[in-house]
Amino acid sequence: MSRGNQNFSTVDIFAVASNRQKINTTVTISEMPELSGLIINSEKVLPFEVQIEGTEGVRGLPGAILTITGRVQMRCTRCTQPIDIEIDREVPFLFVRSEAEANRIPIEEDEDWEVVVGSEHMNVAEWVQEEIILSLPTFPRHDDCHAPENHTSSGQSEEEITQRPKPFANLRDLLKKN
User: Fold this and answer.
1) What is the CA radius of gyration of the chain?
2) Residues 65, 55: contact at Cβ < 8 Å?
């Protein structure tokens, strides 16, 4: 069963998984305030394309493949200019009804799957926001840019700075005399 491109604010993730539904929707940046605070030019961000495809995971647990595509801008850590970050993320999930159930799944069986406590009213925007934030680079930077040249604030040349007196330069000699 497939649903067309609609705007879903919540989904019954267990029904999506058991019925093998395929949901296509969009999520806007206004629905993701935490993400909005991490990027620049958020007013120009187009809605993210989201696909949720119900499936069966390991041990017959309900599962889904979450696919997100879109683009955001961050500030380059080298040159401080905007840099486009492509979001193209596909993550398989297993859904359980409680933390206790999640803890009973052997680690070797869930290593390819993200195990989360599912809900009959799962907030799609919050789910998508978390996955986008996890996909953002910690230190975004252009491949071909260089850090801005370091200029001293007082206008002194590097030569003048290196010739400053060093108050502890002769400390070793003073300590040897005593």
Assistant:
1) 26
2) yes
Residue 80 in contact with residue 61, Cβ under 8 Å? no
- The pTM assigned to this predicted structure is 0.77
Q: What is the pLDDT of residues 57-116, one digit of tens each?
A: 888 899 999 999 999 999 999 999 999 999 999 999 999 999 999 898 887 766 789 999
Handedness of CA 30, 34, 37, 39 (dihedral sign): negative
Cα–Cα nearest to 50, from 30, 70, 26: 26
Instruction: Write the Ramachandran bin of 130: left for phi over 0, alpha for psi from -120 to 50, otherwise beta.
Output: alpha
Q: Which of 5-9, 112-116, 131-135, 150-154 shows the lowest per-residue confidence on average (mean pLDDT)?
A: 150-154
Q: Count Cα atoms within 13 angstroms, Cβ side, for 113.
A: 25
**Residue 169 burial (10 A CB sphere; 0-12, 13-18, 19+):** exposed
Which residues are CB-neighbours of 81 under 8 A, at least 6 positions away? 75, 142, 145
pLDDT computed for residue 169 by the predictor: 73
